[in-house]
Amino acid sequence: MTKSLSTGLVMTLCLSAAPALSDPAFMDQFQSHLAAANLDGAEALARTVLEQDPGDAQARFALGTVQFLEAVEGLGQGLYDHGLQPRNDEIGFGIPSV
């Protein structure tokens, strides 16, 4: 969670440094969703803006940012659930344990 939040903050900084293409209110709301780790709210907001203006490059980038963060979060959850441990019946190079 901390990694995805820090990644979200880095992406927010990238979005802030980009040329202003979207409504500033959109960016303020989007950044507040990311800062609160509310990825669902950020995604819904970006999709709403894209429905109103499909050519909005900044909203499209914002949506991609949220989708990337969701993928990283899912990867982290999967690694937490299943770990990186080798199978119990093998050690090293597939040699069965005794």
Structure description:
With 98 residues, the chain is mostly helical. The chain is 69% helix and 4% strand. The protein contains four helices and two strands, in the order ααααββ. A hairpin with a 3-residue loop joins strand 1 and strand 2. 18% of the residues are buried.
- Described by the principal axes of the CA atoms, the overall outline is elongated
Biggest β-sheet description: 2 strands, antiparallel
Strand order of the largest sheet: 1-2
Report the structural category: mainly alpha
Mean pLDDT over the full residue set? 79
Helix content: 55-70%
Beta content comes to: under 5%
Secondary-structure element order, as H and E? HHHHEE
Task: Let me know the number of strands.
Answer: 2
**Separation, N- and C-terminal Cα atoms:** 38 Å
Low-confidence spans: pLDDT under 50, at least 5 residues?
none
Please, how many helices? 4
Alpha-carbon Rg, integer? 19 Å
What secondary-structure arrangement, pairings included, does this model have?
Elements: H1 2-17, H2 24-35, H3 39-52, H4 57-82, E1 90-91, E2 95-96
Antiparallel strand pairs: 1-2
Helix pairs in contact: 1-2, 1-4, 2-3, 3-4
Question: Features of this protein?
Answer:
single chain; 98 residues; mainly alpha; two-stranded antiparallel ribbon; 2 strands; 69% helix; elongated
Kindly summarize this structure in a few lines.
By secondary structure, the protein is mainly α. It has helices at 2-17, 24-35, 39-52, 57-82; strands at 90-91, 95-96.
